[in-house]
Each structure stands twice: as structure tokens, then as C-alpha cells.
């Protein structure tokens, strides 16, 4: 409404579109390594399940059962123990520094 300062907010603001930034992935090398590991385990399980071995000490069926049933629990156990050992070492290093 003219030059009246009471009505300055009546003027609609024109929003300028932001320039488009190039696409960046939302995952890092750790995610890629984890996905690769999981896919390789799945393919190993499928290979052991579908193929019989005629030679060798252990059959592929036993390997399939080990990989699918025991390996995840062993992996989690090893990771848990490693995590606790790292915590212990960090506590020890903090005590030596103080």
C-alpha cells in the first residue's frame, strides 16, 4: 500500500531457486565393505547349499550348516570380546595418563 511502513509485509517475497548441487552418495567406504561382506557370505552359503563335493575332508553340506548357523554367533562373540578388550585398554590408558 504505497510507502506506508505498516504494510511493508504485504509485498510477496520472490524465492529464488537454489542452484542444484551435484549428487553425493550417502554412504561411505565402511558401508560398501559391510555390504560386500554380507553379499559374499550369502553367495558362499548358496554355493555350499547347492553344490555337493566329492573330494575333500568336509562336505559342502557341513560347510553350509557351519556358515549359516555357527559363523554368525562366532563372529558376534569375537566382536564382543574385541570390543570389551578395547574398552579395557582405553580405561587402562586413561588411568596411566591421570
Instruction: Give the end-to-end Cα distance, rounded to a whole number of Å.
Output: 70 Å
Task: Choose one word for the global shape.
Answer: flat
Structural class: mainly alpha
Spell the H/E element sequence.
HH
- What is the number of E strands? 0
How much of the sequence is in beta strands?
under 5%
> For the CA atoms, what is the radius of gyration?
30 Å
Count of alpha and pi helical runs: 2
Oligomer: single chain
Helix content: 55-70%
Mean pLDDT: 78
Uncertain parts: none
Sheet with the most strands?
none
At a glance:
This protein is mainly alpha-helical and 98 residues long. It is 61% helix and 0% strand.
Describe the protein's architecture and organization.
It is a single chain. The protein is mainly alpha-helical and 98 residues long. It has a domain at 60-97. It has helices at 29-50, 60-97. 1% of the residues are buried. Residues 1-22 are annotated as: Disordered. Keywords: Membrane, Transmembrane, Transmembrane helix. Residues 1-11 have a biased composition (Acidic residues).
Features:
98 residues, mainly alpha, membrane
SSE blueprint and pairings:
Blueprint: H1 29-50, H2 60-97
Helix pairs in contact: 1-2
Amino acid at each position: 500500500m504505497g510507502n506506508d511502513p505498516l504494510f511493508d509485509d504485504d509485498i510477496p517475497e520472490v524465492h529464488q531457486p537454489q542452484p542444484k548441487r551435484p549428487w553425493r552418495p550417502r554412504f561411505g567406504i565402511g558401508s560398501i565393505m559391510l555390504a560386500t561382506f554380507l553379499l559374499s557370505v550369502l553367495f558362499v552359503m548358496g554355493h555350499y547349499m547347492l553344490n555337493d563335493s566329492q573330494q575333500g575332508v568336509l562336505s559342502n553340506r557341513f560347510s553350509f550348516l557351519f556358515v549359516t548357523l555357527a559363523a554368525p554367533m562366532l563372529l558376534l562373540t569375537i566382536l564382543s570380546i574385541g570390543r570389551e578388550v578395547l574398552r579395557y585398554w582405553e580405561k587402562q590408558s586413561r588411568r596411566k595418563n591421570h
